[in-house]
Specification:
mainly beta, 9-stranded parallel β-sheet, 3-stranded mixed β-sheet, 3 helices, 12 strands, 8% helix
C-alpha cells in the first residue's frame, strides 16, 4: 500500500474499458486530481472515493450507476463532475458541499427531483439536467447566481419555476422537449440570454405548433428570433387565446407580406420586441403562414 500511495499520480485515465468495480484502495491516491472512469460498466461508487480530497475533475458518465454515495460531498476541491448517462435516481444532499463546482452534468439519468442543497453550488456555471424525469426545481436554485448554461430539455416540466427569472447571468437556457402548455411572463424579459430554446413543447395558445425556438443575441449584435412550426397532422384548433407574442408576430408578417426572412427597422416592431431585427420562419405548412397567404 505504501508503494501504491507514494506514486504521486495526479491523473488517471481508465475510460472506455470494461471495468465493473472501483477498488476501495483508490483512496490511497491522495495526489489524484483528474479521474476518468467514463464509458465502463461500473455499477456502484465506493464511499472511499470521497477521500480523494485533491480531486478537481471526476468523469463517471456512461456507466451503470444507480446511486451516488453521500461521501461524494467530501470532494471539496472538485470543479468538474460528470455523472451523465447512468441510471441515477437520486442525488445526495451532500452534493451541496461541493461549493467549488463549476460544471455539473447529470444528463440522461432518472432523476425525479433535486435536493434543496443544490442551491449551495454558488460557483456553478454549467448545469446539464437534460434527459431526466424532473417536473420541478428547488427554490434554492435562486442562489445559483453564477449559472450561465442551464439545460432542462427532455424532462416533464409543465410549468417553469419563477426562481429561474432571478438567474441574471444565464446565457444559454434550453427548455425544449418538455410538456409546457404556456410560458411564464418573465421568459420574455430574459433579453440578455443569447440562446433561449423552447422547441418541442405543447403550447395550448399556439394552434398547430409542434416546435418553436427563440434565439436572441447580445445588445451589441442584431437580435434575432427563429420560430419553427413543422406541419402537424392533428390540426385540432385550440380554444385558448393566442399569446400576445404570437399576435404581434402575425401582425408583423401581415404588414410586411414576407414568408421567410424579414428585416425590420425598430419602429415597425412592437415596443416589447424593440430589439428584434430578424425573423425567420421555417416550414410553410403552419398557422402563421396561412395568415399571410
Amino acid at each position: 500500500k505504501s508503494t501504491f500511495s507514494s506514486l504521486g499520480i495526479t491523473e488517471l485515465q481508465l475510460a472506455f474499458n470494461t471495468i465493473t468495480t472501483i477498488p476501495k484502495d483508490i483512496s490511497l491516491l491522495q495526489d489524484l486530481k483528474i479521474l476518468a472512469l467514463n464509458n465502463n460498466r461500473i455499477t456502484s461508487v465506493p464511499e472511499e472515493l470521497g477521500e480523494l480530497t485533491a480531486l478537481t475533475a471526476l468523469f463517471l458518465e456512461t456507466n451503470n450507476l444507480t446511486s451516488i454515495p453521500k461521501n461524494i460531498g467530501k470532494l471539496g476541491s472538485i470543479k468538474i463532475l460528470n455523472l451523465s448517462k447512468n441510471q441515477i435516481e437520486q442525488i445526495p444532499n451532500t452534493v451541496g458541499n461541493l461549493i467549488l463546482l463549476i460544471t455539473l452534468n447529470l444528463e440522461d439519468n432518472r432523476l425525479l427531483f433535486l435536493p434543496d442543497s443544490i442551491g449551495e453550488l454558488i460557483n456553478l456555471t454549467t448545469f446539464d439536467l437534460s434527459g431526466n424525469q424532473l417536473s420541478t426545481l428547488p427554490d434554492s436554485m435562486i442562489s445559483m447566481q453564477s449559472l450561465r448554461t442551464l439545460d432542462l430539455s427532455q424532462n416533464n416540466f409543465t410549468t417553469l419555476p419563477d426562481s429561474l427569472a432571478s438567474l441574471t447571468k444565464l446565457s444559454n437556457l434550453d427548455i425544449s422537449s418538455n410538456n409546457l402548455h404556456s410560458f411564464p411572463d418573465w421568459l420574455e424579459n430574459l433579453v440578455g440570454v443569447p440562446n433561449l430554446i423552447v422547441s418541442k413543447n405543447y403550447r395550448t395558445e399556439i394552434e398547430n405548433t409542434t416546435k418553436t425556438s427563440y434565439t436572441s443575441l447580445n445588445p451589441d449584435v442584431p437580435e434575432s428570433l427563429i420560430a419553427e412550426n413543422p406541419h402537424k397532422q392533428d390540426t385540432t384548433p385550440s380554444n385558448d387565446n393566442s399569446s400576445p407574442f404570437l399576435e404581434d408576430l402575425i401582425t408583423i408578417l401581415q404588414q410586411e407580406k414576407i414568408k421567410n426572412v424579414i428585416r425590420l427597422p425598430p419602429e415597425k416592431i412592437p415596443t416589447r420586441y424593440s430589439s428584434l431585427l430578424r425573423l425567420r420562419l421555417r416550414q410553410e405548412t403552419n398557422k402563421i403562414d396561412s395568415e399571410i397567404k
